[in-house]
Specification:
- The structure holds two protein chains of two kinds.
- Chain A is 39% helix and 18% strand.
- Chain A is of the alpha/beta class.
- Chain A folds into two domains: 6-118 and 272-298, Rossmann fold, CATH 3.40.50.10950; 124-264, Isopropylmalate Dehydrogenase (3-Layer(aba) Sandwich), CATH 3.40.718.
- Chain A has a six-stranded mixed beta sheet, sandwiched between helices. A five-stranded parallel beta sheet of chain A has the order 3-2-1-4-11, sandwiched between helices.
- In chain A, helix 4 (77-89) packs parallel to helix 5.
- Chain B has two domains: 2-111 and 266-292, 3-Layer(aba) Sandwich (Rossmann fold); 118-254, Isopropylmalate Dehydrogenase (3-Layer(aba) Sandwich), CATH 3.40.718.10.
- In chain B, the strands form two sheets. In chain B, strands 8-7-9-6-5-10 form a six-stranded mixed beta sheet, with helices on both faces. A five-stranded parallel beta sheet of chain B has the order 3-2-1-4-11, sandwiched between helices.
- In chain B, helix 2 (22-33) packs across helix 11 and helix 4 packs parallel to helix 5 (96-104).
- The radius of gyration of chain B is 19 Å and the shape is elongated.
- The chains are: A alpha/beta, B alpha/beta.
- Chain A binds chain B through residues 131, 133-134, 147-148, 178-181, 185, 187-188, 190, 216-218, 221-222, 224-226, 228-229, 245-253, 255-257, 259-263, 281-282, and chain B through 125, 127-128, 141, 172-175, 181-185, 210-212, 215-216, 219, 222-223, 238-247, 249-257, 274-276.
């Protein structure tokens, strides 16, 4: 199965056990609005950790009815994050979400050796885009977390993403390793890595997916472009996952899709014991909601 | 863009290397019919005529030169421009590397001595309020400071041909915070200084800026970043070909963008378009080349 739209994620979530989402430092209007909406839609069971009065004030000011919602009072920012992470660590939560706290503070707790959420895997960012001009949802990684991944990091990023896609119902997702060109060029490391990743996939060193690269963006998403260039690839024009060479490329592409192509986007951090929702202020309300939906669908 | 060129009322001669490509022939045909250019098509004449036949184009309006070899066709096209018989050189079906080799040939090529060879595009995007100029999606993989300065100047020059006297230029990065971790954009602050001191003229430059801060006024407001570009960029300069190339392709494929691009640093405008580019984009390129001649 492949996802045609982000709304299809609802079918995955529907009927299953409702996932518990722990919102760390919940006194934050931006995340609260999306969490409350997802709760009303029966997608998640939220646990709000943070300054109780602050949370209640925000909800009152915005007319969020949160009667029946579990709130754990902890006014200290760092203490609230620690409590949230420990709760997830003790299996009392299935998803961790960032509220009014800096990303670095949250990640420091997530990576804590004693009570954090490490699995030994690299953490990576995974985003799903819905664009009118592509026949299905397209996943892109890593546009926000790893600055300049080396080959080993790229393998970990692919594995994180492929495992996630499989949980979303995909079998053998098609992974395009992006390059500026589709030829291996010794001056562009990304194209060398791409060739290695493809071969490692053929040799079953990277499993459960079909990898091809380097592919330029147009060959990856358009069969016509690939044909005109005479590129033989079983994933050309049918890509499920696009692997970015580095964050500079990923960030630009992500913002281009959102701003110029008016794409809908959902994103999640993978590689920890549970999915982590890290949205930023500049994300739209819908993107935050869809990110919660994605994390619920990707949660084990 | 095309209207702008039609007002020039000056016909140019274009020469196409390895011209037996359907979109290229279509674009050249339209430019000839619009009175922008007269054309010399170089390549396998049988195939060129066959394509004309298929598209219902009268091939006698072109001058066709029969050459059976790809590299030879590229060299011949460059020779026409070098001798002054042609004003614009365009790549047809020939591979980009072979084509550029002919352009860059020391004696017979079109390079301006000492100039940086780079690529500038003008992009029309329905979701952006004006033309956007971007560089470099095709030629320099990882430009150093000198190359970036040349790229900036080429982009400003192109924007000025469209009547923009002082362009707003965003130097694109993953974040607006300068960081040594972003190895391809560490020289941005230096560039801004150079622009301030008049070493790069006729532009208001800022960077690093992410794409939102460069092109979206609302993002600038939300983030409260003080930038003279102000979400209203005319020019985006990218840190690498790796980031610029998928950017423009995403515009073409997912945002209904149309693009025209040119090689800069040559004596005469050189059009290098990916073989997979549409007829319309290739037509725009020819119009742009006329504007820059």
């Amino acid at each position: 199965m492949v996802l045609k739209t982000l709304a299809d994620l609802k079918n995955i979530v529907a009927g299953g056990q409702k996932k518990k989402l722990v919102l760390a430092t919940a006194q934050d209007q931006h995340s609260l609005s999306a969490v409350v909406r997802a709760w009303k839609d029966n997608i998640i069971e939220p646990i709000l950790i943070g300054d109780k009065e602050g949370i209640q004030n925000i909800c009152a000011a915005n007319n969020y009815d949160i009667s029946g919602l579990r709130i754990v009072h902890e006014p200290g920012i760092e203490m609230a994050v620690e409590m949230a992470v420990k709760m997830v660590s003790n299996k009392e939560g299935d998803i961790l979400m960032k509220g009014k706290v800096g990303t670095s503070t949250l990640l420091k707790c997530v990576l804590n050796k004693e009570w954090g959420l490490r699995t030994g895997n690299l953490l990576s960012h995974f985003a799903l885009f819905e664009v009118d001009t592509y026949p299905k949802v397209i996943a892109v990684t890593d546009v926000a977390m790893n600055i300049a991944p080396n080959l080993r990091d790229k393998i970990a990023i692919i594995n994180n993403s492929v495992n996630c896609l499989i949980r979303l119902g995909y079998t053998m997702p098609k992974v395009a390793v992006l390059g500026a060109v589709e030829m291996v060029n010794e001056n562009m490391e990304a194209t060398l890595d791409a060739a290695l990743l493809s071969k490692m996939n053929q040799r079953d060193q990277i499993k459960n997916c079909i990898i091809d690269g380097p592919l330029a963006f147009d060959n990856a998403v358009s069969l016509e472009s690939a044909r005109r260039k005479g590129i033989k690839s079983e994933i050309a024009g049918d890509t499920d996952l696009l692997l970015m060479p580095d964050i500079e490329v990923g960030n630009v592409l992500y913002k281009s899709l959102v701003f110029f192509a008016k794409a809908k986007v959902a994103s999640v951090i993978l590689g920890a014991r549970v999915p982590i929702v890290l949205t930023s202020r500049s994300d739209s309300e819908q993107a935050k909601y869809d990110s919660i939906l994605l994390s619920a669908a990707a949660s084990k | 863009m095309v209207e702008k060129v039609l007002t020039l009322k000056k016909m140019h001669v274009i020469t196409v290397a390895w011209a037996q490509d359907i979109n290229t022939v279509g674009a050249v045909n339209r430019s000839v019919d619009d009175g922008l250019v007269s054309a010399i098509l170089i390549g396998k004449s049988g195939e060129i005529k066959k394509i004309c036949g298929k598209k219902g184009i009268d091939h006698t309006k072109f001058r066709i030169i029969d050459i059976e070899d790809e590299a030879e066709a590229a060299a011949e096209a460059v020779r026409f421009a070098k001798s002054g018989e042609a004003d614009i050189v365009m790549k047809g079906l020939v591979g980009t590397d072979k084509f550029l080799k002919a352009v860059m040939e020391k004696e017979s090529g079109l390079m301006i001595p000492g100039a940086v060879l780079s690529y500038v595009c003008a992009v029309e995007i329905p979701t952006y309020h004006k033309l956007l100029f971007i560089t470099d999606p095709a030629v320099i993989p990882f430009p150093d400071l000198d190359q970036k300065v040349a790229m900036a100047n080429y982009a400003v020059e192109m924007a000025s041909k469209f009547g923009i006297e002082k362009s707003r230029m965003a130097l694109i990065g993953a974040s607006e915070k300068p960081s040594r971790h972003f190895q391809y954009s560490v020289d941005y602050p230096e560039m801004c200084r150079m622009a301030e001191r008049g070493l790069i003229k006729n532009c208001i430059m800022d960077g690093p800026l992410d794409l939102f801060l460069a092109c979206d006024k609302e993002s600038v407001e939300i983030k409260g970043v003080n930038t003279p570009v102000g979400g209203d960029a005319d020019i985006l300069l990218f840190p690498s070909l790796e980031s610029c190339n998928p950017f423009y392709k995403s515009l073409m494929l997912f945002a209904q963008g149309e693009l025209a691009g040119l090689i800069r640093g040559t004596e005469k405008p050189v059009i290098v378009m990916s073989r997979s580019e549409s007829e319309k984009s290739k037509y725009y390129c020819i119009a742009l080349a006329c504007l820059m001649t």
